[in-house]
User: Fold these one by one.
Assistant:
Number 1:
Amino acid sequence: MNIAVIGGGRRCRELIDLIERHTFHEINPKIVAVADVRDDAPGVTKAKEQKLFVTKDYNDFFERDDIDLMIELTGHQNVYNDVLHKKKNTVHAIDHETALLFWEISRISNMHQVIHQALQEEMAMSEIVMNDLLEEDVLIIAADYRIQDINNNMLKNLGLGFKEVIGRYCYEITHHQTTPCSGEQHPCPLLQVLKTRKPAKTTHIHLDKDKNELYYSIACYPVFKDGEVVSVIELSRDITKDMNMQKVMMQQEKMASVGRLSAGVAHEINNPLTTILTTAMLIQEDIKPEDPIYQDLQLIAKETLRCRKIVTSLLDFARQTQPEKKNNDVNEIVMESILLTKKQAAFNDISVVSRFAENIPLVCLDKGQIQQSLINLILNAVEATQPGGKITIETGLSPQSEFVEISVSDTGEGIGSDKIDKIFDPFFTTKENGTGLGLAITHGIIERHGGAIEVRSKAGQGTAFTIRFPISGGSNVC
């Protein structure tokens, strides 16, 4: 669309500038001519710079065939009327008042650009704050529980992509639930913020993509619009390590207390047991084997020996002998432990598979104590595995080569989620004739070596114990 402008004042120059910088999609307007009696008019000067047709008499426009629209900017109605009278039928015309629409469009366009620029800056700042400055996981959640935004850190922890999260319910993503969080043990901070209009804090257990439990400290802050809370900003921090450390410290304190109690009880019981056993055996010597009393005495002796075994385990648990450490080959200790337990596995028709990593450095530890721990884990695996099952024993290095790892896994019945947190507790057992001290003793031995033992298990899916020893430093320096 070719445009001729009558009146080369300030408005004409602004119109030329507006059309020059604006991008049109439906039409392609182009100013081709300007008329004004003043040679120094701003619009005329601009038109000359762009080498447009310039004239002092607008009547020259009526002879041209390349003009589609004439715009009168002189402000004189008689000029506009004259244009209407003389223009060709194919040419359109608008007066100066109608032309004000261009300046309104220009003003709106400028405002849009300013707002767009400010919005871009705000979004960039928000991006920096959410993804670079804040170490916490960040969610922006609407009042209907739908996620509006999420930072990269939380996406990484969840193992999900941005599009997989936006628009979905927060409880669906973080808790794998179909309904919002509720109850005293799992309060919904969003609901609390909507109710009180104040920030709220709580602790939740989230599930990662593998449904492992992660402890999170959560703080929610309201976002207001027109006096109403329309969404919340949720900052959550993974405190799983802190919680696990607290559990370890509580476990250590409990084990120490139980150990002291066990030592006292064991010593007090051991002497009477010896007396009972000796007396029963002496009486048996004076009674014929077919006598019913002989069988009762046999039962007393048998049960007394079982009590003595429990007392011995109590003393082993309570004693907590300090390890006599030397540099040892972990692969060699594991191989010897497998040889000592292989017959029990074969007798139960259970195959034992071993995988040994090469180039594992020597580790400073007490060979006897570590072997005792491994034998206990392997025998436990044998008891938990059905005939035809498999036990896998592996050695290796952690991903950062900071630890030597030994894993003992089985295809057995597994451990239920309600029991797995208790397996290292003294006297906790799932066996009919178990003392509940084997894993407690193993746990203590590993800890005294500066190591750690972890368990992964699900009911019906087997169990895996992993022992880690630091390669150097700390308590593992010989």
Note: DSSP finds 13 helices and 17 strands in the chain.
Number 2:
Amino acid sequence: MQEAAHGTEEVNSSIDDVNQGAQDTGAAATKVLDATSDLSRQAGDLKEQVEQFLATVRAA
């Protein structure tokens, strides 16, 4: 009986570890998504600025 109880505790501990790992992975994925969105916005801004610069150079 004690071995079964100990085994159950180990399984529960492992499940808790997996749950924590999943939560950490989800949090990291959210940060990556936020960073990707910000980078995409910055790329769009840069593209617009380059296009304006080139238009100015062509007009000169």
Note: The two ends are 88 Å apart (CA to CA).
Number 3:
Amino acid sequence: MMTTAPKQIGAKTLQASFWLMSGVFYGRLANLAMTIILARILVPADFGLVALGTTLLVILTSVTDLSLANALIHHQDVKEEDFHTAFTLGAIRGVLLAIAMIISGFVMAHLYNDPRLIGVCAGLSVRPLLSGLGSPYYVTFSKELEFGTVAKNEALNYTAQLVVAVGIAWLTKSYWAIVAGALAASITAISATYIRAPYIPHFTLVSWRKLTNFSVWVTLNQFVTIIGNRFDNFLAGGMLGIASFGAYNVGNNIAAMITQSAFQPLERVLFPSFAKLAGNKTRLNEAFQKSQASLFAVGFPMGVGLALVAEPFVYLTLGPKWGIAVTVIQFIAPVLGMQIVFGPSNALAYALGATRNLFNRGIVLLTFRVPIVLAGLYFFGLTGLLVARVISGGVIVSVVNFYLVRSLTGLSPWRQLFVTWRSWVSGGAMVIALLALRNFSDPITTNFIAAKMLIETVVLGGSVYCCSHALLWVMSGRSQIGIEPEILKAGSSALGRFKKPHHRSV
């Protein structure tokens, strides 16, 4: 009986991961398509203007994040009054955030000498107001690993954002298209929570202490993390100019969309899965390292590969006026790809209730990152900012996260790195092959040349990486920790479902 529960958890986690990754793939594809189409219609300054408002919203949202959904997942004895309290706290927070956004819009308009920021911030203020009014029952889908419903609803949100943003951009050629798309996604999202998990609002704060005791350190961690990751946006917007900042922001968003799509949403699957294994350290460590190896095997080549195809990709999709985006992707994408190995660490800390450790990590990273980024941006402009992000995001983030994981699991930095060695070697082989291919490529002057180079690079790079990874797995004894066993399990499961109807009909 002791062995069936973990197997059931593993099977359910695999199914949940499939659904969520399907939703993530569609969402990232829709987001990327929206960015590409809008980049063809709008100008970099439009993206820079809305990015300033979005940065403000992200910071205010993170500063006040109560992590109520995570608290409801964490507690096993959730009662009706807990859901009502979560709704009440979320509603209060949403109203306060909307007011703060509207007031801050006037401040930003004065600081950047651009009155359009008043309207942008007022428009974006509707998003936190709506998100705070969602059905609290909707979190039960995540708690029970029923991510099929979550993935479908999020796909609908992305579709609404894409259609509205592109439609309004086509009609108005205005930055308001980006704001309208974001609002359409929020309206669709809140509607879906009530359709899927009907709820009659009740206002009470009876369980506020129970919920906030878990989330207080999560909130503080969100605060220091977002400040550390986003503070440079405000400075870059002023020092680089709105247009250059817009191109920088688009390049950064594309790098994040493509590389980090492999792990960010899966944290939502890993948290409840790790929580169910929290009482068994051996199985928890094994599950953590499997997730490390599998996610890194996907994210790392995506980051490095994206950097190598940045020039033809941007030329073909965004156009020649987005040269700054190429440079940003080439610097940032490999760093984001390498950070994938630490993707499951947040979920691990949540599962163990070690949220204070996350806050301590955030403080350390903030302490190092701020002076490095400030110095780089002030003395060397855009190039200095990018180099500073490579140092802070590549070296310092790695060291700090290695020791965070060791404090939670006892796994040494070497053991954490070792499970990813096949990905490192395969990635090196891919880079060598693609650099060799570049010697035979023509300069990019037309869309045809860009498309040809993009296809050749993706096909060759993907083939070299996948073949090298599989070959190293076989040569090293077919380890059960890595992405290969998970692919075989998924394939076997899919094949089994395909064969069952056939056997019944015979």
Note: The mean pLDDT is 85.
